[in-house]
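Record 1 of the preview.
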Amino acid sequence: MVYRKFYFGMIFRLIIFALLCVILGVVGINSTYIHTFILLSILALISVFELIHYLNYTNRFLSNYFNSLYESGSKISFDFPDKENSFKNLAQSMGKVWNLLTEARLKQEEEKEFLSNLISHVGIGIIAFNEDGKVRLNNPMALKILNLSSLKHWNQLEEIDKQLLLKITQSKASNKRYIKCVIGEEVKELMLYISVFKLRNEIIRLVSIQDINEEMNRKEVLAWQQVIQIMAHEIMSTISPITSLSKHISQKLKPDGKVIESSKLNQNLINDMAESLEIISGRGEGLSEFISKYRSIAYLPEAQFEFVDLNDLLKSIKQLADAEFKACNIILTSEKIEKVKVDKNLTEQVLLNLIRNSVEALIKRDAKEINLKTSQYSKGVSIEIFDKGKGISDEFIDKVFVPFFSTKEKGTGIGLSFARQVMHLHGGEIKLTTEKDKWTRVKLFFPNEF
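->
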């Protein structure tokens, strides 16, 4: 047995104590053995104290062990100093347990450190509050967005904006909230994602904060850089031949630095000049047309919103498309949907442009079929345009919404950009998914409220 020596030690001490008690009882009857009785009484007391010490020794060992578990980082030895080493096996087992717990504690601290560093590198603000409003966790991005040097309690948010604090504290389940507030001297539009969960016996409210303006500004700069590159390319491709032809005409009219006399003009020179001027005129008209197209997407007309049944709207668009694109079979699938507030004319224009894109994608296909579908989604109504055309390759998918970018030889590159602007005007969005040489799906999402 593991604790055999302990049992034997206890039994031996109890037997000694019992024998002393019996002898004391026998000797105590005879008063002539008074000295022997006193001596045996002392021995009995010593036996009791030794037994108590023996038991306390074990208690001290176990107490030392559990205190060491409680106090992280403490060192403990599990070797008994007694000669018999009664608890050698117990000490070894307890040592192994303590080592495992120490290793688990170190691993937990490493993971906590890793998580802390990971959160500090996240590009969105993260704050965790407990039920009393005390901050359990936050990262530098949250402090940067809120323009704070430190955050200890959610009452500090009330100084920034009372609505911000209300949106955080009154959320009962995971949801998204939007709020516009003035932080410092800057107006910020914040998107809050709030989730509430229980961690052991404590309610935790985890809030992620994203500055929408900053993200939109970054993407807007990127978009404008792409627009400027395309515009620069288009303008340069127009100006270069104009400049070249102008120099060519100038050299013909001033061969030696002076304008030639009219008598020296021959028919070939006149024809050459006339042809060059036609090319210059054509390039100028092309540049004017390009600028006109730019204006059409840069300056949308003022929206005229009204409640429209999108099923009825799609039926009328289908009739127009059937007449214009007779070679294509347009299939309309409608669900029962609520009316939504839209600009009817702009929405018609967007849908006709998207159907035209599908028609062009199906030119070399045997099955020329376009599917239109309306359906409900959580926030409103969606329209889907689906075709099994040539699709779009992965290298171009991120550029299709950039103004003037087109994968078609004679495309203007304004259709999808115009569609996105119109959807933003409606507080909605447009999503395009595609697989090259197989299919393309465009979905328009119109929210009920915006």
